Each structure stands twice: as C-alpha cells, then as structure tokens.
C-alpha cells in the first residue's frame, strides 16, 4: 500500500437520509475492491434531515469516511467544489448520493486513469425512471450549451467523473461564484475521455433539482461559458429594424400611390409588442451578466464550513 490517499470520492448530499447508508455500502464495497487507500468525503449541503448523523456514526467504524458540513444549503455545485478543496487523493471521483450514478463504473474510470487519461467523465447513454420533461429538457440544454460555447463540453454528462490530481489542483484556482463545474473541468483541459453508462432511477427520496434549480444550472452553464446571448441583441436588432424599415417603405408606398387607407392599429400594436418584448428580453440577459459581475465583485467565500470530520483542514486553500 502507498503512503498517501490514492482515491478520494466526493459525495454531495442534501436531505439524503433515505439512501445514504446504501450509498455508503455500495461505494465502500467498490473502493475496497480497488485495494488502495481511499477516502469517502461526504459533503452535507445544509441538510435538514439526519443524513449527517448517519455519516458520523458510520465514520466511527470506518475511518475512510469523512464529512464536511456546510453552515447552510449552498447548492450541489458548491458542495462538490468544497469536496475537491479538501480531497487529498491522487485521483478524485465525484458521484451523486442517490445511486443514480452506479458506483461500479468507478472501476472502469480507474482503468482509464491508469491508461493515462486525466479526466474520465461518465456519459449517459440512457436515463431510466426520470420524467419525460426532465429527459427532454436535459437533452435540449446540453445541445444549446454546445452550440453557444466554444469550449467542448460533452453532452449528456453530469458531474459523475474521475479527475487526476493535476486537474483538481487547477480547479482549486478557479474562484468564480456561479459555477458550472463540469464546464470548468472542460475548460481546464487535459486529456479527457468518456465511459458510458445507463443512469438509473433514484434509489429513494426525491430530486433536489426542481425546475427553478435546473434553470439556474442552465443559466450558469450557458452564461459563464458564452457571450453569444449578448450577441443575440445585435443580430436580432438588425433583423427587426431591417424588417421594420421594409414595412415602413411598404406603408409609405401604399399611402402615396394607392387609395387604400391602411387600418393601422393592429400592425402598430403587434410591432410594438414584438419590439418591447424583445427589448425586455435583451435587458434581462444583460441583467444576468451584470448580476454575475456583481457576485464576483463582492468576493464572498464560495461556502462556509460549520464543521469537518476526519479531514486535513490545512489542505483546503479556499476554506482558510
Ligand atoms: N445536492 C446537493 N445540494 C443541493 C441539491 C442537491 O448537495 O442543493 C446533491 C444531492 O443530494 C445529490 C446530487 O446533489 O447527491 C444530485 O441531486 P439530485 O439527485 O436531486 O439531482 P437529479 O439527479 O435529480 O438531477
Ligand atoms: Mg439524482
């Protein structure tokens, strides 16, 4: 066995008491099979249930189990960021707490890592037991994101992945607030490859990503990796004023050279609505960017840790 920790597994959890013991059991089994030193870092993202107590009692019999407790709910993306800040392993694995990501895939990831790849992300070839709305909205989102950014962010890929220490060290230098972690991992680069899997149903409990949070994640993904929404204003503005001009010419022609009295009101009204709606939309997009600039300018810490268990607190540069 080696001296340091070889594998760190990060498990963000928010009200996961219904599944967490089973998750631990399956993960511990897989990690034991690797035969290397490892740590399981559970990040309690301000849960209101007993999942953190469950982890504490598991840690009494398994010293590989570690815990980061946030002072409140900071969100999934921040929770995995904190996990990376504290992880000590040569390879760091991120996995959901609800067993939608099968832990057994970690073996395949490790095999690729040993081949020399530095990021191994798990791409879903199929999703079981999720609503059609979630499937369709997710499929659309990943494709819109792909179209709107120049960075190659793989489609149908969540945060379930393995990263080499080199990648994690670079990730720790990124300070931005509204994070889309999987995009940032693509952004840092290194040699990346995929393993494929079928995403299962949640073992128990319900999704912690209601529509509002899904939209926030989409916005973070698109807005933090692309200026294209801003350019929309330029193109659409040109198109709209171009067609407005043509229409004006037509109206002038009709009044000057024909007898037809143009009724007017409906066309004015519709043009008015289209333009005003459009201006509001563009203002909203601008507002989103400005809000993000504001967030960055405040320079607040990404998260606040109430307590940790079994972790080297000096390791985390950010939490200092
Ligand atoms: N999660 C979290 N903080 C949150 C929301 C979710 O740490 O504010 C965790 C959650 O416990 C789970 C993972 O993030 O381990 C993914 O959440 P979920 O399974 O609810 O999302 P879905 O799979 O439905 O997209
Ligand atoms: Mg899930």
UniProtKB/TrEMBL annotation:
Keyword line: Cell membrane, Glycosyltransferase, Membrane, Transferase, Transmembrane, Transmembrane helix
Any single Gene Ontology cellular-component annotation: plasma membrane
Domain of life, per lineage: Bacteria
GO molecular function per UniProt: glycosyltransferase activity
Bilayer topology annotation: Multi-pass membrane protein
Principal localisation: membrane
CDD domains per UniProt: DPM1_like_bac
Keyword S-adenosyl-L-methionine: no
Subcellular localization(s) per the UniProt record: Cell membrane
All residue ranges annotated as the Glycosyltransferase 2-like domain in the record: 8-169
InterPro entries linked: Glyco_trans_2-like, Glycosyltransferase_2, Nucleotide-diphossugar_trans
Transmembrane residue ranges: 232-253, 273-291
Family annotation (Pfam families): Glycos_transf_2
Matching PANTHER family: PROPHAGE BACTOPRENOL GLUCOSYL TRANSFERASE HOMOLOG (PTHR48090:SF1), UNDECAPRENYL-PHOSPHATE 4-DEOXY-4-FORMAMIDO-L-ARABINOSE TRANSFERASE-RELATED (PTHR48090)
Family note: Belongs to the glycosyltransferase 2 family. GtrB subfamily.
Protein name per Swiss-Prot or TrEMBL: Glycosyltransferase
Lineage start: Bacteria, Bacillati, Bacillota, Bacilli, Bacillales
